């Protein structure tokens, strides 16, 4: 019931959940809650340009021209190149990454590749809601503090279904906008949920704006994880409305 009341208030405000970080950056929070931080007023953020390290092949057009799969997709991570192999090992949990050869010239076996593909198919809302220690710890770090405080640290403790539903809708609708807010909590969470190969281009200081090209890559990454179609996972703990 709480989740539906919150969603009703969000609809009444009439703001788009797809606001860009530059739009939201002009709003100043009045309260300490997630909703007030997302929709309240904020002082104008600093707009000084920030130098971003030069990156190779980050433009989507270049991917099309080279015939490579979309950046950060499972096929991209499995390419036998140094950058891709490093990104794959940093993205996977330790139980899987330790099985992946550091040398990109060493092939990944069929069995391991299947495990990697299964992991990618779960990564997103469903993975965060799994009743596993790693998933629960990651979920608490990935959420705004006023939502995370209601998530039990012990992964064996079930979340009440209303909270689970609200978390799912947060990731599906509001996560990208919240992660891109120029606030310390949002910036820290953003750097945490991104793969290292992308997080390194995000300034730690939330007053430093994110380069537009980097922001586009972040949005693309989230579109391939949090905003994908929800899959039915029978072994998922808790009630998934």
TrEMBL record:
InterPro entries associated with the record: SmORF-like_dom_apicomplexa
Signal peptide range in chain numbering: 1-18
Region (Disordered): 39-68
Domain SmORF-like: 1-88
Basic and acidic residues: bias regions: 39-64
Keyword Signal: yes
Identification of the protein by name: SmORF
Keywords: Signal
């Amino acid at each position: 019931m709480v989740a539906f009341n919150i969603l009703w208030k969000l609809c009444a405000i009439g703001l788009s959940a797809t606001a860009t970080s530059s739009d939201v950056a002009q709003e100043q929070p009045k309260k300490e809650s997630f909703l007030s931080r997302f929709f309240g007023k904020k002082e104008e953020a600093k707009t000084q340009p920030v130098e971003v390290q030069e990156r190779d092949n980050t433009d989507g057009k270049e991917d099309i021209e080279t015939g490579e799969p979309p950046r950060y997709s499972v096929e991209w991570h499995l390419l036998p190149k140094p950058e891709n192999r490093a990104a794959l090992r940093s993205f996977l949990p330790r139980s899987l990454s330790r099985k992946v050869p550091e040398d990109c010239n060493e092939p990944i076996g069929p069995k391991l590749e299947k495990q990697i593909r299964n992991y990618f198919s779960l990564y997103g809302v469903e993975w965060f809601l799994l009743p596993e220690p790693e998933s629960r710890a990651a979920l608490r770090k990935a959420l705004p503090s006023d939502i995370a405080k209601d998530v039990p640290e012990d992964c064996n403790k079930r979340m009440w279904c209303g909270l689970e539903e609200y978390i799912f809708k947060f990731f599906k609708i509001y996560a990208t906008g919240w992660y891109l807010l120029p606030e310390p909590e949002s910036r820290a969470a953003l750097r945490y949920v991104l793969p290292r190969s992308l997080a390194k281009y995000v300034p730690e200081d939330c007053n430093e704006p994110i380069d537009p090209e980097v922001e586009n890559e972040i949005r693309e990454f989230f579109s391939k994880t949090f905003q994908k179609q929800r899959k039915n996972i029978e072994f998922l703990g808790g009630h998934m409305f």
